[in-house]
Design brief:
Layout: H1 14-29, E1 41-46, H2 52-63, E2 67-72, H3 84-91, E3 97-101, H4 105-113, E4 119-121, H5 129-143, E5 150-154, H6 159-171, E6 174-178, H7 187-192, E7 197-200, H8 203-207, E8 212-215, H9 227-233, H10 241-244, E9 252-255, H11 267-270, H12 277-296
Parallel strand pairs: 1-2, 1-3, 3-4, 5-6, 5-8, 6-7, 8-9
Helix pairs in contact: 1-5, 1-12, 2-12, 3-4, 5-12
The structure holds phosphoric acid mono(formamide)ester (CP) and norvaline.
Length: about 300
């Protein structure tokens, strides 16, 4: 029997993704509608820090009547060098689903190849598909269908940007990326979805006509040593009031968080009354709950 994993958005079809998101919207309004997952356990293997993703998964499992077990490198044998394949074989004989946050995406893939239970990408260096579920839910809640809309990605061509490229294909929107030279997303990905994705050096060009503007930190987890050099390269890529004024008048602004006020996003925008970024963060829980309900019911 083949197991359904969620390693990138492309592991699910557009209609499956949309039904998870609509279910998340429904469960947010009425949590008692959830299909309970009593006696089910979610394993959480995190090799990088997390607030939202971890708490969202743990709270979701609690609300579904199941349990979760958190394993960091400091307290698992994985952290002492036990092969990922052996960890996958053993853990998947005990738990019902595993979410992994790690560095190399291929490590996640190797775990999934040896797992008997669904594996979820809780962020790798290359992709962050769970965040996209929450972002798409937030857009749909505030503005309706995202199909045919225009999204601007301002900043690093990182894991979030690459998941936005996948989302452009699956949710049918145009993605305008603006990043400094040397910080582009994987060219294989931009080539694959060239019909949906364009790249410019000028953030003003990218945000013009955008219905959604998205940004993220300039240095991701694991790139802390590059912070000062990146600050110089990205200095013209801050999303602020002036830049947002070039987007459509009802454009939304999103950020996966954590944010660096005064770097990729101005403090004024992040602290604005009408910002949807806190809804976006809350939606991590609703959308991951809907994802768990879906994968655990297969
Ligand atoms: N956005 C996000 O994934 O946040 P955490 O790193 O806190 O999980
Ligand atoms: N690009 C960021 C996202 C954090 C949720 C990182 O990988 O650190």
């Amino acid at each position: 029997m083949s197991v359904k994993h969620f390693l990138t958005l492309q592991d699910l079809a557009s209609d499956e993704l949309l039904s998870i998101i609509h279910r998340a919207i429904e469960l947010k309004k009425n949590p008692s509608l959830a299909t309970m997952q009593r006696n089910k356990t979610l394993g959480l293997i995190f090799e990088k820090s997390s607030t939202r993703t971890r708490v969202a998964f743990e709270v979701a499992m609690t609300q579904l009547g199941g349990a979760s077990i958190f394993l960091s490198n400091a307290d698992s044998q994985l952290g002492r060098g036990e092969p990922i394949e052996d960890s996958a074989r053993v853990l998947s004989r005990m738990v019902d689903c595993v979410a992994i946050r790690t560095f190399g995406h291929e490590k996640l893939e190797r775990f999934a190849q040896h797992s008997q239970v669904p594996v979820i990408n809780a962020l790798t260096d290359d992709f962050h598909p769970c965040q996209l579920l929450a972002d798409m839910q937030t857009f749909i809640e505030h503005r309706g269908n995202i199909s045919g809309k225009t999204v601007a990605w301002i900043g690093d061509g990182n894991n979030m940007c690459q998941s936005y490229i996948n989302a452009a294909d699956l949710f049918d929107f145009e993605l305008k990326i603006s990043c400094p030279e040397g910080f582009e997303p994987d060219v294989a990905l931009t080539d694959k979805f060239a019909q949906r994705v364009s790249l410019s050096r000028d953030p003003k060009i990218a945000v013009s006509g955008a219905d959604l503007v998205v940004t993220d930190v300039w240095a991701s987890m694991g790139q802390e040593h590059e912070e000062s050099q990146r600050e110089a390269s990205f200095s013209n890529f801050q999303v602020n009031r002036e830049l947002m004024s070039l987007a459509n008048t009802d454009a939304l602004l999103m950020h996966c968080l954590p944010a660096h006020r005064g770097e990729e996003i101005s403090a004024e925008l992040l602290d604005a009354e009408d910002v949807v970024i806190w809804d976006e963060a809350e939606n991590r829980m609703h959308s991951q709950k809907a994802l768990l309900e879906y994968l655990l019911s297969q």
